[in-house]
Amino acid sequence: MVSSPHEAMHRIFQHDLNLFSRVSEVLGFDLPTPVDVTVLPTDLTEAGPVERRVDTLLRLDSADHGAFLLAVEAQGKKDSAKPASWAYYTAYLWTKYRLPTALMVVCQDHATAEWAQRPVASGPPQLPTLTLKPLVVGPHNMPVITDPSEAHADLVMATLSAITHAGDPDIGAILKALSTALRDVPEDVADPIIEFTAQGLGKRPAMQLWRNLVAVDLSFYKSYISEEIRDEGRAQASADAILIILEQRGIDVSDDIRERITGCEDHGILRRWLARAVTAPTAEDIFEDA
User: Fold this and answer.
1) What is the pTM of this model?
2) CA-to-CA distance for 254 and 34, rounded, in angstroms?
3) Is residue 166 domain-shared with residue 130, that is, in the same domain?
4) What is the chain's mean pLDDT, rounded?
């Protein structure tokens, strides 16, 4: 199953078609600024029965250096089968479009990034034939953007910073800078940034911090994704309050009951449970009419 961080790591390059140019500048690559970028179909399936899809595929055209293809792959963990798939993607795209083809792999942890950037040859050591050496983007080379003014200057780069550093100690400062930078931007600009950040964090602990920041710093936004994140934050706060009240009253809470409380996402139900937690003789009694 494709995870939300996986989707965020490559779809952000479809959202802002000039993001790769700015990423290449950060990494010190001397690439021409494209005059046009086109999102291409990602289906690489041939006539045979095997379906193959690259995550994101872009065509970048520059005035002086022509065009090239950029295949963007999101990688959440080491996978020994991936280098062969990546080699297939690049060779197939080169053959199909007759254009130079580059591969960029986006990662969220140092170990996966270090593994992904190792050159892999298709042949034996004496005959390497086709050598795969992707450009890897991750916490080892993406900027840590903790200044709200810097985040405001490039919201999409700040979002990529949050996504690639999702598991780093600095993630709290990155998210705070991003939420602060979003306070005075139009809602149609802020909404995809909020969504990509939420997707990129996935189920990591930092997701709760992002919910809280959206609920507090961006409370004036009324979009679906903003409301969804705020509702999740309110649900988590209500569940925590129920457990604290039961604990303070000396009432035992089994693992099953704790899981039921924290797993509930209906704010109305949680409010009823919270009211009953004040007087219920046992933890089970808060569910009396469930």
Assistant:
1) 0.71
2) 59
3) no
4) 86
